[in-house]
């Protein structure tokens, strides 16, 4: 990256950036990007117009691609905001749209949102009509309330309706890449505003296309796991007249690294077919001895009158990076269309017990 920018900077030496590249080994990816972005801002000239001209010359090279774009886009945000003028800010947004096909600028645009929320949202809404799917996706992904690796934008987290016009403009987008972002954005909102999510999903289903049901299913996945009745109803999983036998477990104790066999039978005792989403919930023991539930998917099916679904599901209790297991009495429940059934306990033994 340093060689490229020096070659388009009229002989300017990027001493800070060259030094920064030698200081990255012990840093995580995000910290590396921030360190390089700061060095670029220090090395490249002000005013912003000269800075942007150098970035655009670098962008003419196909070698400016992949992860090296992240610090460049962050530097663009920082430089355009620091300039303080409306023209620099708008051009900074334009330059992010030019960079994003090389690597998404979803993290860099967060700084723009925090600096000038209303103007940034106006421009991002314009992006929804871009010919480039990467730019259209940036409009949705960049405004996600809980963007992975992204800094929070408090206003959007507090009021998800601020970005709703962007999602409304994109949910029928021709690109699966864009629609996936819209679904993930709506799923983010479900963490704190399930009513808004269901309201938007219902509106989309009533005025959607052949891709909308799939998008809505993905967007409602967290609410379905929670057993939200409105979300389940939107997907056709209303109240069901079923009888559940179980869950049963093949053992009452287990050590870390082993697995349980979970069994159950779900029977339709009604006179009409029922659409079912069947999950199971494991109540894991926390460090303080209390238990916290985690929902896992089993099946989505339709049961005819008098028919039964036999469940046999293996569940591993093994170390993973996102969960730490603690010894104690865990439990399993079955969840059918959001309603919990049964309660079977098992003991997770300390690792030194075999």
Automatic annotation (TrEMBL):
InterPro entries referenced in this protein's UniProt entry, alphabetically: ARM-type_fold, DNA_alkylation
| Pfam families linked to this entry | DNA_alkylation (PF08713)
Please state what the protein is called.
3-methyladenine DNA glycosylase AlkC
């Amino acid at each position: 990256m340093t060689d490229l920018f020096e070659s388009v900077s009229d002989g300017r030496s990027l001493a800070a950036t060259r030094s920064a590249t030698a200081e990255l080994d012990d840093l995580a990816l995000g910290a590396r990007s921030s360190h390089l972005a700061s060095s670029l801002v220090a090395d490249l000239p002000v005013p912003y117009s000269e800075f942007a001209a150098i970035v655009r010359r670098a962008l003419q090279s196909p070698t400016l691609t992949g992860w090296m774009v992240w610090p460049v886009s962050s530097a663009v945000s920082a430089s355009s905001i620091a300039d303080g003028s409306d023209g620099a800010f708008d051009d900074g947004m334009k330059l992010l749209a030019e960079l994003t096909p090389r690597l998404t600028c979803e993290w860099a645009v967060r700084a723009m949102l925090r600096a000038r929320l209303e103007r940034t949202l106006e421009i991002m809404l314009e992006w929804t009509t871009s010919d480039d799917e990467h730019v259209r996706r940036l409009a949705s992904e960049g405004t996600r309330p809980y963007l992975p690796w992204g800094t929070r934008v408090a206003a959007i987290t507090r009021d998800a309706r601020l970005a709703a016009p962007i999602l409304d403009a994109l949910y029928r987008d021709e690109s699966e890449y864009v629609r996936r972002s819209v679904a993930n954005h709506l799923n983010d909102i479900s963490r704190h505003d399930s009513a808004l999510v269901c309201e938007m999903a219902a509106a989309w289903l009533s005025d959607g296309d052949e891709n909308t049901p799939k998008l809505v299913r993905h967007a409602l996945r967290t609410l379905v796991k929670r057993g939200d009745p409105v979300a389940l109803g939107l997907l056709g999983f209303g109240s069901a007249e079923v009888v559940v036998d179980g869950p049963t477990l093949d053992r009452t104790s287990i050590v870390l690294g082993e697995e349980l066999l979970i069994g159950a039978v779900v029977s339709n005792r009604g006179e009409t077919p029922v659409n079912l989403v069947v999950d199971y919930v494991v109540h894991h023991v926390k460090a303080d001895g209390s238990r916290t539930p985690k929902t896992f998917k089993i099946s989505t099916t339709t049961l005819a009158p008098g028919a039964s679904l036999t469940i046999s599901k293996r569940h591993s209790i093994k170390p993973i990076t996102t969960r730490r297991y603690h010894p104690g009495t865990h439990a399993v429940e079955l969840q059918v269309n959001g309603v919990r059934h049964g309660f079977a306990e098992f003991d997770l033994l300390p690792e030194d017990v075999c």
